[in-house]
Structures are given as C-alpha cells and as structure tokens.
Write a structure and sequence with these properties.
By secondary structure, the chain is of the alpha+beta class. It contains three helices and three strands. A three-stranded antiparallel beta sheet has the order 1-2-3.
C-alpha cells in the first residue's frame, strides 16, 4: 500500500513510501538534504517496518527534537503500517 506523510519540524515537505508484506519500499522525501536522505532511503529499502521504527524513532537533528528518520518512524506508526 502507498502512503504519503506530511512531516513536522524538518526540512522535507513530504515522505512517500510503500509497505508490502510488512516491508518498506520506494521511500521518497520531497525536500531536505538530498545526499543524506538518498542514503537513508537505500538503507531502509526492503527493511521490516518494525525494525525501521526501532532504529529511527527518537533520533533527533540538533535542537529540533525530531529528524527526517524520526518523522519516517512516526509516519509508519501513524499510518498503521505496523
């Protein structure tokens, strides 16, 4: 199933991704730091949703209290992908 999430407190305007058989595919951030986000998307391709949440939830970027990875974890939880 395809999802789109509007992150809060980070540079990207949206996060799009697919979940099939409890695994994450085709993650795309619109906006943000291209190099870091491309690397993140490669690392999580095919990763189990629960594992991605474990790894990325509560990671923060400076004083923001969140990060692009944390926002993806929130998206996975909010869209009931778990």
């Amino acid at each position: 199933m395809k999802y789109e999430y509007k992150p809060e407190g980070v540079c990207p305007k949206s996060i799009e991704y697919e979940v099939r058989d409890q695994k994450i595919y085709n993650v795309k951030y619109t906006g943000g730091c291209p190099g870091n986000l491309q690397a993140l998307c490669k690392v999580i391709e095919g990763m189990e949703v629960k594992r991605a949440i474990e790894l990325f939830e509560n990671n923060v970027c400076g004083p923001r209290g969140t990060s692009c990875a944390d926002q993806l974890a929130k998206a996975l939880r909010n869209n009931n992908a778990v």
